[in-house]
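ok new one. same drill as before - structure tokens go in, u give me an amino acid for every spot. 66 of them this time. try not to just spam alanines like last time pls lmao
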């Protein structure tokens, strides 16, 4: 596998069209990685306390419409 420096060098040599394609692909790739991590955190219960705190704030009238 290439090193980060090799990848950076290869990217610097791309034409504008190829760079645009790479950029779109990488944006999609990062979004998918984030979604998978978020789903795993939800499944593991890592966000439960935040949800409970939001529910309490709502029940106490501490929320306002957007």
């Amino acid at each position: 596998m290439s090193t980060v420096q090799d990848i950076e060098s290869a990217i610097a040599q791309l034409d504008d069209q190829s760079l645009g394609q790479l950029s779109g692909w990488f944006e999609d790739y990062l979004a998918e990685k984030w979604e998978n991590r978020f789903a795993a955190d939800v499944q593991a219960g890592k966000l439960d306390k935040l949800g409970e705190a939001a529910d309490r704030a709502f029940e106490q009238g501490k929320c306002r419409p957007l």
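The chain is about 75% helix and 0% strand. and btw The radius of gyration is 20 Å.
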